[in-house]
């Protein structure tokens, strides 16, 4: 019998969002993998979880996955957690899951905290269809992605860091229009949770004079059908000129 790989969501800020099942799985696992053991230490201590913990992050996941697969094939159960939220959602986890499935190892993801769901629901934008983009490319391909998403009619969800928020809003105004509606949430589930809604220009103006602290989730209204046609023609003309 092989072991099982569990993906265990952890709170994105409020410890009360930890589930009973998540605590049980972490206590029963033969090994816990953490994105940053120092970040996870307070959480594990709070819930009196004393299992072995090893680091599994973007810089070592390819190398460590080989050893973890061997561990699972020996019949040991492994639980993966990230610094906050659900593993593999803009966090390490995807590569390990794919490797485990190659060896027919059972993988189970527990339901739990993730930042984009409350941000989406709070935004007031349509939730029946949405497009999760996570972090946009930092440099190469960034403008191209903006142009590709300019005609997306579904609600867009992006993650952004504090030091890039204003620049991203400025770029949104350039590629998607200053009047596009946006909802920006920060410090979700924490004491200073805040959601700011309005046009791209209005939200940028607000954050120019307010604290840029915490991780940000940006929900952007989908492009209107008329705007889609205009954008398609504009970017097609740009390509023809090139």
Automatic annotation (TrEMBL):
GO terms for molecular function: methyltransferase activity. Residues 4-203 form the Tetrapyrrole methylase domain. GO terms for biological process: methylation. Keywords: Cytoplasm, Methyltransferase, rRNA processing, S-adenosyl-L-methionine, Transferase. SUPFAM superfamilies: Tetrapyrrole methylase. It is found in: Cytoplasm. Its EC number is 2.1.1.198. InterPro entries: 4pyrrol_Mease, 4pyrrol_Methylase_sf, 4pyrrole_Mease_sub1, 4pyrrole_Mease_sub2, rRNA_ssu_MeTfrase_I, SAM_MeTrfase_RsmI_CS. PANTHER family: RIBOSOMAL RNA SMALL SUBUNIT METHYLTRANSFERASE I (PTHR46111). Belongs to the methyltransferase superfamily. RsmI family. This is Ribosomal RNA small subunit methyltransferase I. The gene is rsmI.
